[in-house]
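Risk register update: the risk of archive-format incompatibility is retired. Evidence:
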Amino acid sequence: MAARNRNCDVLIIGAGPVGGLLACILARGGRDVVLAERGARRPAAEGSRDTRGYALSAGSVTILQDLGYWDPLAAHAEPILEIHVSRRGGFGSVVMDAESQGVTALGQVVPAARIDAMLARALDAAGVEVREQTRIERLEAAGPERREVVVTGPDGRHRFAARLVVAADGAHSATRAAAGIEVLRRRYEADALVFDILPARQHRGRAFERFTPEGPLALLPQSGGRMNVVWVAPPEACDVREGLAESDRMAELQEFVGWRLGRLRAAGPLARFPLELVRARRLHDARLVLAGNVAHGLHPVAGQGLNLSLRDVAALAGRLLHAADPGAPGVLADYAASRSVDIERIAAATDFLARGLLAIQGFAPHALGGGMLLLDRIDPLRRLWAEQAMGLQPLPRRRLRSVPAALTEPGVRRRRGPAETGEGMA
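Archived output:
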């Protein structure tokens, strides 16, 4: 069957938070965008089995506010007012609170299903052409002005000739593989069990991160008094806990967490995720660029994965909106250079927290406790740590704030604007 042909400015592969948000921004800025997704969009959060809660840093919330996408999420968000970091079976802890940092909240926890639902509606409002349940069949060599991609879906084959292809299809990206971009991949000897609980006592906006001999255990505040648990442990320990009766699993969690939140009750289904570090050797190819987990899949400790990815979106969108040619080599090289330090820093930090602290706990536990005490008592160190945790790195805010409002009628394509004609360069 012959493929149907379609030219576009930007073809984005992957409609998760990274690809979906980038598509919305670019379409609102005047680009002709096509979004191809291997699954189906989830416009309704109710009934979703996705139990994850995203801890959005203050910087990530700022990005969404500038774009006008925070209000639909705010009603379902729970502010993080305090973060308590401790070590099981040892002294030393670190407490950081919003008031001491001069902010209203250190971050916000939003259910993943709510973000998916918001983006599904936003894509329609921005007039983005979305192709669901597709897979990439072939990625052609780049021509002087476009790169061709053949995707297969329920209605047949489509050949897209795009000025730029954005790979946003996750840590196991088929697009990245088709482009021949190598990755550094390290499988952690750990998985994450994720589920919601309802503590007897109010969490009062407190988030907890406890380092145990098995790995980190995080409790994130959620709306309605619930908390989202991310329990990292070796695969064999996860096997055992998955097989336990719910009451026995909660009893073991209670032993790890203690009683500061009162008795803990299960409040949702259990999900399991294998953990690995994924780092792309390079962030771009001819008329192709990587963003989000395609470029950097991280351990969930400290909740930095989506926040790092949203900074990718902000940096990439800020450049593409004001480029005469979105796939020009200089545009992509500039994006890659701007993101390299941030990606390297966060990847190294989370890898140390995931692997290095386990070694420290076994070798010199008092050193870890002493370091926590030192960090908790020296205000300049605490402020530096707070700024990093809140994701307050410089953002292209002026460029994102200038993005036009979304279309009022889904399916109507926006007229070509400055971003597409090359006028109004920042």
